[in-house]
Automatic annotation (TrEMBL):
<dbReference type="GO" id="GO:0032259">
    <property type="term" value="P:methylation"/>
</dbReference>
<feature type="binding site">
    <location>
        <begin position="12"/>
        <end position="17"/>
    </location>
    <ligand>
        <name>FAD</name>
    </ligand>
</feature>
<dbReference type="GO" id="GO:0047151">
    <property type="term" value="F:tRNA (uracil(54)-C5)-methyltransferase activity, 5,10-methylenetetrahydrofolate-dependent"/>
</dbReference>
<keyword id="KW-0285">Flavoprotein</keyword>
<comment type="function">
    <text>Catalyzes the folate-dependent formation of 5-methyl-uridine at position 54 (M-5-U54) in all tRNAs.</text>
</comment>
<feature type="domain" description="MnmG N-terminal">
    <location>
        <begin position="9"/>
        <end position="376"/>
    </location>
</feature>
<keyword id="KW-0808">Transferase</keyword>
<keyword id="KW-0963">Cytoplasm</keyword>
<keyword id="KW-0489">Methyltransferase</keyword>
<protein>
    <recommendedName>
        <fullName>Methylenetetrahydrofolate--tRNA-(uracil-5-)-methyltransferase TrmFO</fullName>
        <ecNumber>2.1.1.74</ecNumber>
    </recommendedName>
</protein>
<dbReference type="InterPro" id="IPR040131">
    <property type="entry name" value="MnmG_N"/>
</dbReference>
<dbReference type="InterPro" id="IPR002218">
    <property type="entry name" value="MnmG-rel"/>
</dbReference>
<dbReference type="Pfam" id="PF01134">
    <property type="entry name" value="GIDA"/>
</dbReference>
<dbReference type="InterPro" id="IPR036188">
    <property type="entry name" value="FAD/NAD-bd_sf"/>
</dbReference>
<keyword id="KW-0819">tRNA processing</keyword>
<dbReference type="InterPro" id="IPR004417">
    <property type="entry name" value="TrmFO"/>
</dbReference>
<comment type="similarity">
    <text>Belongs to the MnmG family. TrmFO subfamily.</text>
</comment>
Length: 454
């Protein structure tokens, strides 16, 4: 039955909420956006405009052949995405990146949404989880505390985080396995897979001492004003641990006990850096316990001094930020619905993606999925070999739920393409193959959607 009168409510008019509303409205559904600003502010937003960029003015690389975020731009443009349309209109010169003039950008997003005949905007904070109707919650990393508490009451407190503590993530095929090896501490585990679940990088005394010096000397970022540190002993930045004593890391995340280096079985490593698989595909590994406030340039330099990681490519670097996000792999289904309350979808950074572009893409998808459900036309999520599909597949089950932390789009989330060389040398051809494959799959998905709706 088609309930044309059913309204879609979107909470939050940021990157994700604005795009979700636009997509659903263009499919013929009436949408109400509930935005708390300017009545209630956040420490990072400056205006009452929809689609405000809270910090940098960059949508990152616009290269849709060699870069996963550029591919996400391309997919959103093909799907008539509002955020991309307006970003293109207010583009500033920035080499291969897509930088925008932030205030005219947010003003244009606001104007376009206000002018849409199917969209209205209600200003005010939503403090409770809705009971009736179709909803998308896109309240972002700075979700107001009342709504955050209401969400936590539904999901369980441990399934909603208020800080991310991101350890750097490395592409497996960039790790030098002639130095590193696979082994769980004390060979623990019932199966061979469990006994070899960790990837280990050994250090001798000199390497460890030089590593501690580099950590302490590295440039660090400060917390934003109003973003209280509030980190607790379980997720201290490694440089803070190092400052507490030069041996702290050797008795913490870098302890060498219970591990034997098969490349040098007679030499006991002085310290060991452990990496743990980050996705089911096994293409990404995170460096265990290495959350950090070091600046990105410094991180790359310091982490490449770890034996085995000299040529590491990072899918993302580490960080600690104020960030409200769900444990989506356990809470959301592939349609972005809350399993326990399927009339509520989540979109944007709160789902555990990271960045303006990824958040807008998750808004685009949630808007289309919600509108299709309202219109009675079932819509499948896009396949994992598209950038949008790779993200939704990762957050709704591809990621390891126990260690789930927010993720940027990257080629490590895509099913591998066969027949291409791994490592740096084959990278150009491999990335082109990823983006070619994604583009035809995205077109097919858009076409199937249009047929379903017809
Ligand atoms: C300090 C900071 C700096 C960042 N810097 C960058 C950066 O440089 N580049 C980058 O790509 N990403 C950055 N991010 C991540 C960034 O927030 C996301 O990329 C993007 O803004 C997320 O989009 P979103 O739509 O999920 O959330 P937002 O864009 O934050 O939108 C959420 C909206 O929901 C509203 N809202 C919240 N609670 C309620 C409520 N209860 N009722 C009604 N409305 C509500 C908010 O006012 C806001 O408008 C940063 C995040 C923070 C916190």
């Amino acid at each position: 039955m088609i309930l044309m009168t059913q309204i879609l409510h979107v909470i939050g008019g940021g990157m994700a909420g604005s795009e979700a509303a636009w997509q659903a409205a263009n499919l013929g559904v009436r949408v109400v956006i509930h935005e708390m600003r300017p009545k209630v502010g956040t420490f990072a937003h400056q205006t009452g405009l929809l689609g405000e960029m809270v910090c940098s003015n960059s949508f990152r690389s616009d290269d849709d052949e060699q870069n996963a975020v550029g591919l996400l731009h391309w997919e959103m443009r093909q799907a008539n995405g509002l955020i991309m349309q307006i970003a293109d209109k207010h583009r500033l010169p920035a080499g291969g990146a897509l930088a925008v003039d932030r205030n005219p950008f947010a003003q244009s997003v606001t104007d376009a949404l206000m002018a849409h005949p199917n969209i209205s905007v209600e200003y005010g904070e939503i403090t409770e989880l809705p009971e009736d109707g179709q909803w998308i919650i896109a309240t972002g990393p700075l979700t107001s505390s009342a709504l955050g508490q209401a969400i936590a009451a539904e999901t369980g407190a441990e399934a909603l985080a208020f800080f991310d503590a991101i350890a750097p993530i490395v592409y497996f095929d960039s790790i030098d396995m002639s130095q590193a090896w696979m082994q769980s501490r004390y060979d623990k585990g019932e199966t061979e897979e469990e006994r070899t679940a960790y990837l280990n990088c050994p250090m001798d005394r000199d390497q460890y001492e030089a590593f501690i010096d580099a950590l302490m000397a590295a440039d660090k970022t400060e917390f934003h004003e109003g973003e209280t540190a509030g980190y607790f002993d379980g997720c201290l930045p490694i440089e803070v641990m190092a400052e507490r004593g030069r041996e702290t890391l050797r008795f913490g995340p870098m302890k060498p006990v219970g591990l034997t280096n098969p490349h040098q079985p007679d030499v006991k490593p002085h310290a060991v850096v452990q990496l743990r698989r980050d996705n089911k595909l096994g293409t990404l590994y995170n460096i265990v316990g290495f959350q950090t406030k070091m600046k990105y340039g410094a991180q790359a330099e310091v982490f490449k001094s770890i034996p085995g990681l000299e040529n590491a490519s990072f899918a993302r670097l580490g960080g600690i930020h104020r960030n409200t996000f769900l444990n989506s792999p356990t809470l959301l289904d592939q349609q972005m619905r809350l399993r326990s309350k399927p009339s509520i979808r989540f979109a944007g950074q709160i789902t555990g993606v990271e960045g303006y572009v990824e958040s807008a893409a998750m808004g685009l998808l949630a808007g289309r999925l919600a509108a299709s459900e309202i219109l009675g036309a079932a819509l499948d999520t896009p396949p994992a070999n598209t950038a949008t599909g790779a993200l939704i597949t990762h957050i709704s089950g591809g990621a390891e739920a126990k260690t789930f932390q927010p993720m940027n789009v990257n080629f490590g989330l895509f099913p591998p393409v066969e027949g291409f060389k791994g490592g740096r040398r084959g990278r150009k051809d491999r990335y082109k193959a990823y983006t070619d494959r994604a583009k035809s799959a995205w077109h097919a998905w858009l076409k199937a959607e249009a047929l379903d709706a017809a």
